[in-house]
Each structure stands twice: as structure tokens, then as C-alpha cells.
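#data-curation
PF: Archiving a pair of folding outputs for the training set. Convention for this channel: one message per protein, sequence first, C-alpha cells after, nothing in between. First:
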Amino acid sequence: MGAQGFALDEKDFFTGTDVNIIGDTLIEVKYNKKAFKKIQSIFTRYKHIENIPPKTVSKLATMKGVHQLKIIRDSLLARQLRQRFQ
């Protein structure tokens, strides 16, 4: 079983929606604007995730805000999304 993560499409990417697929489970996260802008800023500055300093990740992880989390178990949807983004 592998995990995949991606923005649903370009419009979702710019609004802060991420989806991860693990087996037949989808995990969708919608970030608030402040957190999303910080994430964009980090990935603009660092091209490789391993170059992001732990302190930067820690600051991001401890930001206050409201985010939406959905966990959906649907093997058909997971398969369709996986095929769409491979």
C-alpha cells in the first residue's frame, strides 16, 4: 500500500486543498488562508522538502487557525483519483 498526495486541480491548489490517498482512504485537508500562504512561501523558498529547516516546520505546525479535515473511505473514488493523477 502506498500513499499519494496532490492538490485536486489547479484551482484547489491555489485555495489550499490537499488530498492524500492511502489504500482506499482519502484524507482531504483545507488550510486557512494564513497557513496556506505560509506553506506557499516555504515551498517557493525550498525546492526540496529535505531542505526545509525543522524550525520552519515547527512554526508552521504550531500556527493557530481553523482547518477542515475530511477522511473518506471509498475504494472506487480512491482508485479513480489515483488513476487521474498518475
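PF: Second:
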Amino acid sequence: MSDAPSQAQEHDRPATVSTGEYSIGSNVLPGLSKLVEECGEVVQAVGKIMGAHGFVTHWDGSDLKERLEDEMADLWAAPATRLGEPSGQQIVDRLHG
């Protein structure tokens, strides 16, 4: 079975695809989707540590502590690099203002 879209699926697709309201580069909370993605990756890393009963060596040999640190760094950087403000204040202001 092919992963390529069928002719009907390709035909139904719009000619241009926008970035979406919450995507990087949008005018409405740009990068919010990236922030949510990074949050999910932190939660996944924590879940793996919990599933390993607190041990930091995963069954596949990877270092879960290192994975968690990497994902937390990505999460920390998301507001600054994706939203254009180091504090992520743009999100707070738009949600509460």
C-alpha cells in the first residue's frame, strides 16, 4: 500500500496552504503550536522515566535524563525563538488581555 495521496485526495487539497493561526510566522499567537509540541515532548520524556520506575537508562539503551534535559531546553527556548519574546509575555498578554 502506498503512502502517496490518492488522486482524489490530491485534488481536494487547496492550492495554497496557510501556516495556520498558531504556527510559526502567523499573526495570531505565532509559534503556539510549537510550544505545545515541546510541552508534549517533555511529558513524553517524563513518562518514559516513570515507566522505567525512575531509572534513567531506557530499555533501548538511551539516557532518559539526557533526553529530558534536551526536551526541557527545547521547551525553554520555544517562546524566545518561536514567539520572538524571551519571556513568552506575548502569550500571557494575548490570553489575559
